[in-house]
């Protein structure tokens, strides 16, 4: 099984599209946001723009990496018959999905690291503990979206999966505070958007303390998405 | 019935429907160790469905499927079965060596990568990206995945699709080597000459039913192995002219099928399919005929196959008519 996981990671890192969309794209957007807001610019509640967007672009890249890495590939590989071929090996059925999630988990790290590096260069100043805590929080949070990606990969056919992923991804980002902070009037609803909760994990570096509700909400989403993924996987296995 | 060690695979009264289509209809079949078995049938005959059931990719609606006396999954987990599927997609963004290595590593009785690459004849492709291969090359990579370990049974679904003639020959050489090593091989194909030259047992599947099961020679014999063709001219006697009686020809020994057409000048062209052409021709002369332009030709497996499936279709439509 480790062979499969290693190969999944290797092929994801080899894929140029992955690097473009999940590492380069959020990094460029981040640079753009910093210059648009100016060096001393702030967003709502007086949080520095470069610090706010460092988090939101890291989550943007991580969610993108995880959704496309799992949903698109699973959907395509179901269609091509690779998943059937794997079922003819001694690997347990879950190995394939676990391999995908492991590959996702590894590939979110560059997306987060590159944006953090730009942030540090641009003058985001955090204690070492907070840098590490933030990276860990964002890394762990990405597993929620890996589970969602697996579910979408088993739910959608290959010709539909790209638009489906894009729509889900963009809507969650739009109302999740990725490109602009969520206004007070929308916050009541945004709490049920996993991307919003994901961004809120960073509240402790914005002087907010550890966010209890977002952690609980993300845990609930993780359970929900995992259950959906498991159900859809079993349904798919029956259809061969 | 006991599931002794003599059974590689067993279908017992297995049926599987997709919606209203009966893909597999009451299939009973046992494969024994060391056999090389060809599975023939027109498109939609249920070949792929049967293989899916055999490999446990699908569950039968009724009946049981066993591999080595247990479930298909157990046989796969034990590393006793290797398979090459018709629609077996491959991983993208990986090299040939990497995907073959994966197959070798996860196989409980896996071989070394280099050995498997050589067996499948893809050593020179080892560093190529899987997504950059031609159809025939991809087929050989799939074959490599099927022989990545010491399997007792190898299942191949239309393995030579997309291969050109020389590659196809190489492929069957590799396949024969597997069979010579004592492995049981089951392959579905629509190239009948492959079945004829490689298999020692041929199964004909039609509309989800097994309608023939025997050696290639037996299948041909059943279909009427030879065709006797000749003309009867009225000038050659009353039997060929006014007294002509089809029933006499039909009664010739070995006759399986008869086709007579008459031209305006009274010349009849006769075609007989016969399971015993020698006796048939002798009896023809004995009955007072003078066949002109006599030809006795051997039927290929292909014609035998068409004959058998055609007969089955006729029988079924007659059954429908009676109902």
TrEMBL record, chain A:
Pfam families: ABC2_membrane_3. GO terms for cellular component: ATP-binding cassette (ABC) transporter complex. It is a multi-pass membrane protein. One of its GO terms (biological process) is response to antibiotic. Keywords: Antibiotic resistance, Membrane, Transmembrane, Transmembrane helix. The chain crosses the membrane at residues 18-40, 52-74, 95-119, 131-152, 164-182, 211-233. Residues 51-230 form the ABC-2 type transporter transmembrane domain. The keyword tRNA processing does not apply. It is found in: Membrane. Its main location: membrane. One of its GO terms (molecular function) is ABC-type transporter activity. The keyword Transmembrane helix applies. PANTHER family: NODULATION PROTEIN J (PTHR43229:SF2). This is ABC transporter.
UniProtKB/TrEMBL annotation, chain B:
CDD domains: ABC_DR_subfamily_A. GO terms for biological process: response to antibiotic. GO terms for molecular function: ATP binding; ATP hydrolysis activity. Coiled coil: none annotated. Residues 9-232 form the ABC transporter domain. It is a peripheral membrane protein. It comes from the Bacteria. GO terms for cellular component: plasma membrane. Gene3D superfamilies: P-loop containing nucleotide triphosphate hydrolases. This is ABC transporter ATP-binding protein.
């Amino acid at each position: 099984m480790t062979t499969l996981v290693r190969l999944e990671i290797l092929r994801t890192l080899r894929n140029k599209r992955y690097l473009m969309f999940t590492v380069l794209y959020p990094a460029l957007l981040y640079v753009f946001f910093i210059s648009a807001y100016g060096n001393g610019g702030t967003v709502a509640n007086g949080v520095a723009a470069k610090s706010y967007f460092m988090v939101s672009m890291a989550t943007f890249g991580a969610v993108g990496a995880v959704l496309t890495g799992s949903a698109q590939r699973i959907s395509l590989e179901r269609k091509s018959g690779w998943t059937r071929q794997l079922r003819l090996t001694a690997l347990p059925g879950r190995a394939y999905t676990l391999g995908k999630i492991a590959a996702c988990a590894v590939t979110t790290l560059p997306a987060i690291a590159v944006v953090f590096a730009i942030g540090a260069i641009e003058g985001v100043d955090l204690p070492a503990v907070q840098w590490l805590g933030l990276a860990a929080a964002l890394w762990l949070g990405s597993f929620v979206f890996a589970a969602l990606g697996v579910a979408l990969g088993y739910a959608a056919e290959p010709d539909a999966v790209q638009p489906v992923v894009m729509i889900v991804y963009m809507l969650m980002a739009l109302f999740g505070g990725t490109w602009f902070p969520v206004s007070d009037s929308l916050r009541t609803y945004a709490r049920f958007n996993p991307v919003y909760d994901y961004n809120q994990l960073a509240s402790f570096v914005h002087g907010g303390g550890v966010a209890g509700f977002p952690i609980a909400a993300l845990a609930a989403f993780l359970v929900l998405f995992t259950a959906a993924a498991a159900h859809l996987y079993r349904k798919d296995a029956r259809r061969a | 019935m006991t599931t002794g060690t003599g059974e590689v695979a067993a279908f017992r009264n297995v049926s599987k429907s997709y919606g209203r289509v009966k893909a597999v209809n009451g299939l009973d079949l046992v494969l024994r160790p060391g056999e090389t078995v060809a599975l023939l049938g027109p498109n939609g005959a249920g070949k792929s469905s049967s293989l899916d059931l055999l490999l446990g990719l699908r569950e039968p609606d009724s009946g049981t499927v066993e591999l080595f006396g247990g479930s298909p999954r157990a046989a796969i987990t034990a590393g006793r079965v290797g398979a090459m599927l018709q629609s077996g997609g491959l991983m993208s963004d990986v090299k040939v060596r990497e995907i073959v290595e994966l197959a070798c590593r996860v196989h409980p009785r896996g071989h070394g990568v280099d050995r498997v690459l050589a067996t499948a004849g893809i050593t020179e492709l080892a560093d190529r990206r899987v997504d950059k291969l031609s159809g025939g090359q991809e087929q050989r990579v799939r074959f490599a995945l099927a022989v990545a370990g010491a399997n007792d049974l190898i299942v191949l679904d239309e393995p030579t699709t997309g291969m050109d003639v020389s590659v196809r020959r190489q492929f069957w050489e590799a396949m024969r080597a597997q069979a010579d090593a004592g492995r049981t091989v089951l392959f579905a194909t629509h190239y009948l000459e492959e079945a004829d030259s490689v298999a020692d047992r041929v199964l004909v599947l039609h509309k989800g039913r097994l309608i023939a099961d025997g050696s290639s020679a037996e299948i041909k014999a059943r279909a009427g192995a030879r065709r006797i063709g000749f003309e009867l001219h009225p000038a050659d006697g009353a039997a060929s002219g006014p007294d002509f009686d089809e029933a006499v020809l039909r009664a010739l020994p070995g006759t399986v099928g008869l086709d007579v057409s008459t031209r305006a000048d009274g010349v009849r062209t006769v075609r007989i399919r016969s399971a015993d052409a020698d006796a048939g021709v002798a009896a023809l002369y004995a009955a007072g005929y003078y066949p002109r332009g006599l030809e006795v030709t051997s039927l290929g497996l292909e014609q035998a196959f068409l004959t058998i499936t055609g007969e089955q279709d006729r029988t079924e439509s007659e059954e429908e008519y009676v109902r």
